[in-house]
Hints:
This protein is an alpha/beta fold. The protein has a seven-stranded parallel beta sheet, with helices on both faces. Strands 10-9-8-11-12-13 form a six-stranded parallel beta sheet, with helices on one face. Strands 16-15-14-17-21 form a five-stranded mixed beta sheet, with helices on both faces. Residues 93-431 form the UDP-N-acetylglucosamine 2-epimerase domain.
Amino acid sequence: MIRREGKRLNKGGEKDGERERSGSRSGLTMRPGPIARNPHELYYLRMQRMREKTDKMEENKATRKLRVCVATCNRADYSKLAPIMFGIKANPDEFELEVVVLGSHLIDDYGNTFRMIEQDDFDIGSKLHTIVRGEDEAAMVESVGLALVKLPDVLHRLRPDILVVHGDRFDALALATAAALMNIRILHLEGGEVSGTIDDSIRHAISKLAHYHACCTRTAEQHLIAMCEDHTRILLAGCPSYDKLLAAHHRDDYMDIIRNWLGDNVKEHDYIVALQHPVTTDIKNSVKIYELMLDALITFNKKTLVLFPNIDAGSKEMVRVMRKKGVEQHPNFRAVKHVPFEQFIQLVCHAGAMIGNSSCGVREAGAFGTPVINLGSRQTGRETGENVLHVRDADTQNKIYHALELQFGKRYPCSKIYGDGNAVPRILKFLQTIDLDEPLQKTFCFPPVKEWDISQDIDHILETQSALAVDLGGTNLRVAIVSMRGKIVKKYTQANPKTYETRMELILKMCTEAVIDAVHLNCRILGVGVSTGGRVNPQEGVILHSTKLIQEWSSIDIRTPISDALHLPVWVDNDGNCAALAEKKFGHGKGVENFVTVITGTGIGGGIIQHNELIHGSTFCAAELGHIMVSLDGPECMCGSRGCIEAYASGMALQKEAKRLHDEELLEVEGMVDLKKAESVSAIHLINAARLGNRKAEAVLRTAGMALGVGIVNILHTVNPSLVILSGVLATHYQAPVQQVIGQRALTSAQSIQVLTSDLEEPALLGAASMVLDYTTRRIY
């Protein structure tokens, strides 16, 4: 807190120094006057004093620690605040930490959870008993009032520079109100989110009182900007609890923790975690849902850990229902008031399902892929991963029981919607940039900030939204960090192993290395995109059938192992489709509604964009353009058929023809390098021979260009795109022949369609990255 400097009044109401000058009033003798100096000397003395004063102020500013007060009200917000508190404590040269504990932390019925703060070796500066018991609406209001009575003395004594407040609890509203009225800067965590109850109103009210914001998702950030908050004071940090849970959930002793809470006979993924809180705007219905949930769980007959609800209005009625059902004595149930966060992570991570309406289900559980059943309206509007099944109108036991049948025992891809494990470093860096000399009064941005404005200021955080791209080719395995603008920040290349086990091991090793490097390169990885040959089910992330170039690569679920290892969402698609997506985002297809991309490389493939969407087909074999038949009696193709475009125009087909000509001693012409071994002959030698006038080579290329052109004419007559893009190493050699065939053989209405060659150097990697970048930045809920 910056205090105004001014002259202090003494007990008589006089300013310091005034009594010295009026010595007759106090009986003191007057000081002798100053020695006379010439004007120039006085000027230089004043300048020297001003420089000394400025230097001293700068020195004090450089050495002064930021005094941060973290206030925690309950077990839930401590799990988010603790990582920040540890980060502040680990930087004693930069920060001075003060801890205030209030709310349900200090209530025995809720586990006296302040003890876990003491066990974490934090010095609690103040404990405030602020809860008025009653667990109804009036008690919540009285608790806010009691907190407002007690907080001023504490804040005046601690004099923090900034107060860190979390979330949407009524205790937090009291904290923010007191700090704002006492001219203390406020950093609000997890503002801008939507959860569908009175919590929304409280959360947004705290956001309006707060001076700075650290939010978890891009959507929350946009909500804050729409609420006229200054975008330069918003940090998209992610959820701090993810820093701890992503680092700690892989523990060797997790089964010991599970057995400690649920008994020795419980198995991994064979128990349920239940956590349901009251909805203060609809208490009667939320208690009914709680009763139906318990009935469904009793009938479902699985080991279940039930946590007591929070202290909101209606919790007392929910506890009565739990005891009426005999849950605390039931052999399948264990009812507890509190579980330490590190152990709670293990319990949620390895559960068969989580049920209730806790934000943990829609936030933290997604990081593990744990199935979640969300009951009622409490989390309406929250961003969720695939793992959450919503039962909005949970009005019957059968409906909840059916949801348990659908979800129990499933595993989903890990989601990082709410964080990537690096929130605390961002928040600490953000705190260090706060200028305590800037005006304390908030300014609001009217009208709302335009959509191209972003929240991070370059001085706050220098991170690039990026994707991890994986390209599985017949020869090489490549991984790249790709920025939002299509720049390949770093690329990794290894030979593609021949077996499934070694290939998956290498993929995970390269991806892990890239994720680690991304942190040092200031790149935030949003997800992983995988481009591979063969037929792919992108909905399930499964490679159905691979090309003959990649062995042991059919019926492979590639999404799950990568997602589990990296805790990132994963997208998978065919390399031809990825090339089309690359053109759509970064190449000639940008802004084009309908176009076709044809890859001309070792094989022939491609992708079709229709009405701005990629076409996959009913069995995911749409756009197998290389296997369009252009002749009934043509050469044999690798697919087993004859006369396919690939059998004429692919790099392998051209290489086969080049070897045939070489064997017949018809390939080499004057000006070519001697080819002593047939194994060294490639399609490039055929192309060079044609350029040097070899008529046999020219005929092969002419036939290949004709076959490709006829195939593309068939595509034009089928899907009628407005543009054809040729990609791959042979694209430049085929552009003119294909355009010529279109002019000769296409319908008049299709003859004007343009054929361009791609400008993209890495279409497979860029296409894999575009799956991530497009989806994660346009998600709408």
